[in-house]
Structures are given as structure tokens and as C-alpha cells.
Amino acid sequence: MLMNDVITVVDLVATAVFAISGALAAAQGRHDILGFILFGTITGIGGGTLRDLLLGTDAVFWFTRTEYLWICVAASVATWFMAPLFDSISRVLLWADAVGLALFSVLGAVKALQFDAPPIVAVGMGVMTATFGSMIRDTLLNKEPVLLGPEIYVSAALLGAASYTALHPFTEWALPISIALAFGLRACAILFDLRLPKYGPAENDQS
Amino acid sequence: MLMNDVITVVDLVATAVFAISGALAAAQGRHDILGFILFGTITGIGGGTLRDLLLGTDAVFWFTRTEYLWICVAASVATWFMAPLFDSISRVLLWADAVGLALFSVLGAVKALQFDAPPIVAVGMGVMTATFGSMIRDTLLNKEPVLLGPEIYVSAALLGAASYTALHPFTEWALPISIALAFGLRACAILFDLRLPKYGPAENDQS
Amino acid sequence: MLMNDVITVVDLVATAVFAISGALAAAQGRHDILGFILFGTITGIGGGTLRDLLLGTDAVFWFTRTEYLWICVAASVATWFMAPLFDSISRVLLWADAVGLALFSVLGAVKALQFDAPPIVAVGMGVMTATFGSMIRDTLLNKEPVLLGPEIYVSAALLGAASYTALHPFTEWALPISIALAFGLRACAILFDLRLPKYGPAENDQS
């Protein structure tokens, strides 16, 4: 069916984009090419794998659909050769991560709704699919997780997943609209340094 | 059935208490309100989610019983407004964590035994359910995991899970007794700084 | 059947060896005996547990086969008493980890192939089974993950899993040959400080 084809293509693109972000993080840590492939693959399929485990699917999606693995390997290897061409790896990583975030937050909700998930579960799955891969990537590489950074990040994933969950019964354009909303919010957050108010009161005790 | 109702209530209380501890940890890291909700939810349902994955249940418990998610969100938001009222967040966090530890160590064993788990598996599931949520919370927030702290922590979870596993065939009071034992041991550990002997010999090499 | 008996024995040995490496890591962190058991068990069964979750087996292997848990407990307790006898804990840990790596990389592929996994999935499962336990161990103990160390590590797991996947239709000796290849490569890497070329270009931006 046409809609499912669109979703599959978007899913593969999101996987490749996140794999590139994982490989770029490996570049920052100056790892070897297998490190690129390892972090590219973990970041690319990590979120969707957790989603499948929580939904209780039989086996994870990449068990039968190995093209997801190949695309992670290919994107990671390509990054190894392309990364030197970029002036600022951290800037490219930031934007690759933003694109992946927007795509996966909506796709996570799509997949959960296909399993008849209640709305709050669909939204939660969207946020989780979008953030889990980068969370492992950053934890393993001992970087400050990007989702704990000061700018709006989780909010963008939340907006993407929630708007798709709210809109999909009403319009066929729910997919592109919610992706655009999530990406737009994250892009604004990066460009204009948008942030939610932090927890404020003076904190006197350590740990 | 009455017993199951009691278990459900205790389970919801434990989830709320752990969610509060997660939100308090987010307060220490000065995150925004979505950070509170994220860490509250991860800490509140993390242990039970891992338990369900390992037991091979069809889908995780909060897929159909969304009240667990709502209670995490509500507890996290409440913590955002209440936290400034406390003198010492780290002290409240310590005790909330102790209550959650006692409740979840026993509930993890209860659920595993409902799946006919052998005793060692039931005990292990109890320890895991009680410690996994706080383990992720502390790892993601880059804090020293509380379960690696010097005072007795894993021992208290072990006592709760093991005493329930041992007592439940013999008495209907197994649930409150084991919760009291686990909480009592952890409370004594906090108050009197109880600890097991550390590994002692001089260690000359680094890592 | 004979072959399955051999695999079971090798699997138990690998579990014990990885449990010892987990307990030794706890010794370096000067934890108490429950910390030894906790990290020994996580490291011993962590990789195989993730593999089972991803393969979508009903319950994890140690739910019914509790001997895997007992062997982790026994190996951890034994390490508590034996560790002081070693001159250099980090050296023993390095070699125990190398043996576990070689055994589990091949066994992960064996189990995946029993589930009719495609070759790339079998190789990926082998690498994951071999590296996941030590990855959690090091992350929780806040050590630099050994798989991010400079010498060849992931490559050895890859060699073990790939050579078994390639050889097993052709020879009954696929199991010992691939284990020897993986261990040989890792041993050479430790002894002769073999490493793959790191990502090279000057990197001007921080994170």
C-alpha cells in the first residue's frame, strides 16, 4: 500500500541519518572504522529496537529486514570517508540528529498506533524511539547526552509524536505535518537557543 | 481478588514514589519540566519494564494499564512544584528511594512467582526490579549510582525479595513482612551508616 | 546430542569466565561481596540476555536453566577469595575478558543461526553477545569501556562470529576454529598492541 511504502522509505532515511550521527560521534571520539560501524548501527536501530521489545513483537524488525543493518553499515563507512570534508563535525552532527529526531518521533508513534496503542503510549513510544538511540550513543561515548542539553529537545520529539497521534484520524497529511512541526521546533531551538525554564530554587546540597 | 487489589495499590504507590525520586534527581541536575517527567517516568516504570521483558510477557504492563504512565507524569509534575518546599532535596530523594526499593524488591518477586519462576529467579527479579530504575536514572544523570554507594543497598533489596520468596507459601502476611524487613534494613543502613566489608587487599594497578 | 552438549559446556565456561571478569572489575572498584555477585552476574548473563530478547524467545534462558545464575554467583564468590592472590588484577581481568570475548562471539552466532537468522544478523548477534556484558559492566562502574580501548577488540568478536557463520555449513570444526581465531586475534592485540587506524583528520571543535 502506498502509505506503508512512504513510511518504509522515511524509516530507512531516518535510520541512515541517525547512523551518520552515530558515526560522527565516533569521529569526535577518534575511533577506528569498526567503532564507526558499531556506533552508527547502535544509534540507527537502537530506538526502533527498544520500541519493538516494548511492543512485544516476535523478533526485532531488523531480524528479517536486514536492509536496516546494511544501511547502517553503509552510512557509517560513508561517514568515515566524508567526515574530513566537513568544517565542523559537531555542527553536522547537531543537524543530522535533528532530522533523525523529527522522523523517528513520528515513526515511533505510527508503529505504536499500528499495534492499537492508547494515545499516551503512542506518544511515549515516539519520544522513546527518537531519543533512545542518541541516549545510548552519548552514554557509551561518555558525552553529555544531547537530550539533557539546555535547548528544547525532548519537547520537539513530544510535539512530533503528539501531533501525529492527534492528527492521523483526520488527515492523510498527518505524517509530513508532524515531521515538519518536530523539525521546525528543534531547528528553532538550535538557531535561536530556545529553552524551557529550568528548575529554579537555590539548591544547597550536593548530590 | 483482594490480595491482587492490595498488590496493585502497593505497585502504584511504589511507582509514584520512584517517579518522585526520579524527578528529584532531575531537580538536582536543574532540568526543565519535561526533564522531570522523563526521568520520573523512566525511574518509575524502568524496573518493572525490564522485569516484563525478561519474563517474556506479551507487551509491557503499561501498554494496556496506562494509569502507570499517568501516575508517573502526575508525580513528576507535582515534584516540580513541591521540590522548592524541601530543605534538602538529597535527603528526601534518599528516603523516597528507600521506600521504592522496599516495595519494588518484593513486588518484583511477587510478579516472577506468578510466572512460576524458580526461587533464585524470583529473588533476582526482585533485586532487578528494585534497582534498575534508579540505576538508569543515575547513569543518565551522570551521578554515582546509589546502588554502588557505600551503605547497604542491594542487600536490602535482596532481603525483601528473598524473605517474600521464602515466606509466601506459609503466611498471608508475607507481603507486609518482607516490605518491612527490606525498608527496615535500608533505613538502618542510612541512619547508622551500615555497610558490608569492602574488598580489602591493597590494589596497586589502576584499571 | 553431542554437539549441543559441547555448546552447553562451552557456554557455561564462557559465563563463568565473564562472571569472573565482572567480579574483578568490582574488586578494582573496591565493592562489597554483593557488588561482586551483582557485577559478576550482570557481566556473565548480560550478553546472552540481550541476545534472547532480540531473538524474541519466550523467556530468557536463565529463567528455566538456573545453573547459569548459580555459576555466576559461585564464580563471583570464588573471585572474592581468590583475587588477593593475584599480583595484578587488571592483567587477569584483561585475559579473562579475552577468553569470554572469544567464546561468546561464536556462541552468539551459534544461537542466532539456530533461529535461522540471516548471516549479517548472526554476525551482529555474536558481536553483541560478546560485548554487551562488558559494556554494561564498564558503564556502571564508570570505567572506560574496554571495547572503546585502543587495541583491536570488536574486530576479534567480529572475526569469531563471522568465521563461524561462514564455516559452519562446511565443517564440524567450525566451533573450535572460530573460537581460536577470535582469541588469537585478541591475544595478539593485547601482546603486540595491534590497533586499527583511528579516524585521523584534525578535529577543531569540542563535542
UniProtKB/TrEMBL annotation, chains A, B, C:
Domain Glycine transporter: 9-83, 94-168
Domain of life of the organism encoding this protein: Bacteria
Membrane topology of this protein: Multi-pass membrane protein
Keyword Transmembrane included in the entry's annotation: yes
Transmembrane regions listed in the UniProt entry: 6-26, 33-56, 68-86, 93-113, 119-136, 173-192
Compartments where located: Cell membrane
Signal peptide: none
One Pfam family this sequence matches: Gly_transporter
Alphabetized UniProt keyword annotations: Cell membrane, Membrane, Transmembrane, Transmembrane helix
Keyword presence, Iron: no
One GO CC term on file: plasma membrane
Family to which the UniProt record says this protein belongs: Belongs to the UPF0126 family.
Protein name per UniProt: Trimeric intracellular cation channel family protein
Source organism (scientific name): Halioglobus japonicus
